[in-house]
Amino acid sequence: MQQIPDQMRQAADAPLDYAAAWKARTGRPVIGLLPMNFPGELAHAAGCLPTLLQEDDEPITIGQSNMFNFYCGYNRSIVDQTMRGRFDGLDAIMFGDHCVQLLGTADIIRAEKPDLPILFNQLCTVLDAGWAMRETRGTFSQIWKELEALTGEAIDPAAAAQSIRLFNRNRAQIRALYDLRRRGEVSISGRDMQAVVKSSMVMDKDEHVSLMDLLLRDMPRQAPGSGDLPIYLSGHMCHAPKPEIIDLIEECGIRIVNDDLFTGWRFVHADMDESLAPVEAMASWYIEKNRSLPCPTRAIKGKDWQDYLLVELENSGALGLVVLMVKFCEPHMYFYPEIKAAFDEKAIPHLLIETEHEQMPLEALKTRVETFAEIVRRRATALAA
Amino acid sequence: METVSEMPNSKIISAGGPKANKLKSTKFGGKLVSEYWESVFRAKEAGKKVVWYNGTYIPPFFHAHDLVWVHGEAWAAMLAARHREIGAQARGEQYGYDRELCSYARTHIGQMLIELDRVRSGDHGMDPDDPRLETMLKLPAPDMIVNAYPYCSSGQQWDDITYRNFGKKVPMFTIQIPLLWGGRPDAGYMQGEEWEQRSKYVAEQLLELTRFLAEHTGRKYDYDRLGETMTYVKKAAELRLEAMDMCQVHPSPASFFDWIVSIAPVNFLPGDQNLVTYFEGVKAEIAERVKAGQGAVPNEKYRLFFDGMMNWNKVGWLAEKFAAVDACVVAGRYTHMSFWQEPQLIDLGDPILGMAQNYLICPNNHGAPIMIGEIEKLCDKFDIDGVVCHASRTCRGMTNSQFLIADSAKKYGRQSMFFEGDVADESFYKDELLNIRLEAMIESMDAKRRAA
């Protein structure tokens, strides 16, 4: 069974090599997507491979000549990869999100690779504004038009509807795996779960759906073998945490029962409405998914991130929260104090880990996580007594 | 007790007394700013409703509706300029805000937390001599919050936090001013399909803002008064640009730092005759200096362009720093590419679309190629020798593209340099690095001249 996560990990670890092989095989364009909300369905409907551009493991070297070191690791890595020529196989980049650092990154890519089209149309971030749906619809219609111009082929609405169905199926498969993990019916490491989601961001969707079918069918139903301490993992809103950090957390006797990571539940939690016309479905997916799982990069009154986390912690049976905050991620820096205050008020143990692109002192971190695990364990024992 | 932050061990290059010849007429602006904050502090006594806002220069909408407005950035900048920011930043850090977060926001939110502490405890608990008291205990709480941030995503989140800190009870209105990416074939400065679409989109939101203001004050919005307010703003903007244009002469009669202290009037002071009088005074003094051949830097040898957000703790310090090496910082992105820089777009009979367009073309809301093209035009116009980039640590909105800006400077034979600092957090400023780099830049410019 392990060969399926391994196969997924292979694509997740080298997504651009995977994309190059796919392109050589199909002769079709590869479109790089920047996070967080861009629907790959549209690129798929245009006959392209949408690949969500990932941070890589290489140290930032040449990229430092174009971006300051006080930008998050994801942005610095993307700039570095651009300058190392890693994106030379892409036929275009598309995105719509409003992160000021990402906007800077896109401009650097444009300057470095003037022949690489970048299709950017900014999504409306004020989700409860009266014009939010109309604007979002307009944004996706505009991208639709620009993609057609890029490929020289019209996108058939029926193909878009088919892509939506396929992507929905893939998300549902991953959610099913999440449910199995939450219920303690399967043993899957955090590292493997990351590989599952990350590969779905970069692989041919049909291929990933087939692998997921096999995984869900063949995965042994057995109690988790890893740690005994159920914990919820939160943060990393637009890229994957380093697998070493996930490993380290689990090595401290912790079992991750759920998460809201971008390379996790945040990526798969919402489907598009198949009964709607494609653009309408994409627009309502964008608006609604950020209502159901709050994202601090959107302005919306109502549900707060900390309230969501408190409920989800209880639903998943987690006894504590580990927050993975990407260094220099401003939205997270704004909202973390509210999460901290809410969890302090409820006396729920929580631990903040600031992550970096560069190597982190894992032994020192391990001591912190072990201490946190001990606190959680003692508090749970005290509450049970 | 907080103390005024100075750097006694750090010397300005070529010390020898102050050399920056600041405009005298800008003192009137200081008076206007003080009066403005006084009116803010008296707002509740005067029975006025108060709007807290962040982002672009939207106060004419508030002024026309007889509201009092508090600009969060201006408040933070004012605290920093008066060296009153450290207490606020410490309170923010205590609450959990990381110091890598926008220091404008940290200062403003930290200040708000201090005031909320006081309200909750009923006692400010400070020494009566504490200098923080002067500024901390006066800011009226908001009746409304308005957010209108071009380009920077952080700004929207900042006001979201303000909204939450006031218990989500204060009505809030968020305007989206999207980036003009300039990727479509017909894109250009103030032209193309994207420009047309986005102009209408922002104008529509501004119209909705007037409805929001009317709804939450129970008063009809007076569009005629908006037009009247904009008459003054437009006139002042034209005077400012005319005065800036006069700085093409050598030596330049005014410097970037004079324009920096002139930002408050054009950014957030009321649109009335005072605004026009201020810029008439500035223009007249500049005209006199042109006639007399008097420069903002008496012995001007080098002409520089300043890129980046201002380091508000260091306005006078930096003015002296550059003047000490006979370098006049003549123009800047922040001063010369913003604040009603295209007043001809404003139709006084129906000003909203033109206002929206001025908001859209703020100094960083264009994709890099168009924005840098505008910088190049300014550098040519003002005969610039070198570009100084202030890498403001917590303001990514202004540090984005700075490497591309430096590349562009080099492409056109201009020197470029970076120095580290921040908008409101003095701890990021590294004086010795600036000294060394400035000295090296001056030497390079000299060498280039010798070679020529």
Count the domains of chain B.
1
- How helical, in percent, are the residues of chain A? 40-55%
Percent helix of chain B, as a range, is 40-55%
Number of helices of chain A: 15
Query: Which class of secondary structure composition applies to the elements of chain B?
Result: alpha/beta
Main beta sheet of chain B:
4 strands, parallel
Count of helical regions of chain B: 19
Please give the number of β-strands of chain A. 8
Biggest chain-to-chain interface with counts: A-B, 47 and 48 residues
Task: Based on Cα principal axes, name the global outline of chain B.
Answer: globular
Order of helices and strands of chain B: HEHEHHHHEHEHHHHHEHEHHHEHHEH
Distance between the termini of chain A: 41 Å
Count the strands of chain B?
8
Mean pLDDT of chain B: 92
Describe the strand arrangement of the main beta sheet of chain A, using strand numbers.
2-1-3-4
Which spans of chain B have pLDDT < 50 for at least 5 consecutive residues? 1-11
- What is the level 1 CATH name of the domain at 11-159 in chain A? Alpha Beta
CATH architecture heading of the domain at 11-159 in chain A: 3-Layer(aba) Sandwich
Q: What's the gist of this structure?
A:
In chain A, 53% of the residues lie in helices and 11% in strands. Chain A has helices at residues 3-13, 15-26, 40-45, 73-83, 100-112, 132-151, 157-182, 190-202, 205-218, 243-251, 265-268, 278-292, 305-316, 330-345, 362-384; strands spanning 30-33, 49-52, 92-95, 118-120, 229-235, 254-259, 320-326, 350-355.
Which helices and strands occur, and which strands form pairs?
The complex is a heterodimer of chains A (385) and B (452).
Chain A: H1 3-13, H2 15-26, E1 30-33, H3 40-45, E2 49-52, H4 73-83, E3 92-95, H5 100-112, E4 118-120, H6 132-151, H7 157-182, H8 190-202, H9 205-218, E5 229-235, H10 243-251, E6 254-259, H11 265-268, H12 278-292, H13 305-316, E7 320-326, H14 330-345, E8 350-355, H15 362-384
Parallel strand pairs in A: 1-2, 1-3, 3-4, 5-6, 5-7, 7-8
Chain B: H1 27-41, E1 50-55, H2 59-63, E2 68-71, H3 72-81, H4 86-95, H5 103-121, H6 132-136, E3 144-150, H7 153-165, E4 172-177, H8 193-217, H9 223-245, H10 256-261, H11 263-268, H12 273-292, E5 302-307, H13 315-323, E6 327-332, H14 333-336, H15 352-360, H16 368-381, E7 386-392, H17 396-399, H18 402-411, E8 415-421, H19 431-451
Parallel strand pairs in B: 1-2, 1-3, 3-4, 5-6, 5-7, 7-8
Helix pairs in contact in B: 3-5, 4-5, 5-7, 8-15, 9-12, 16-18
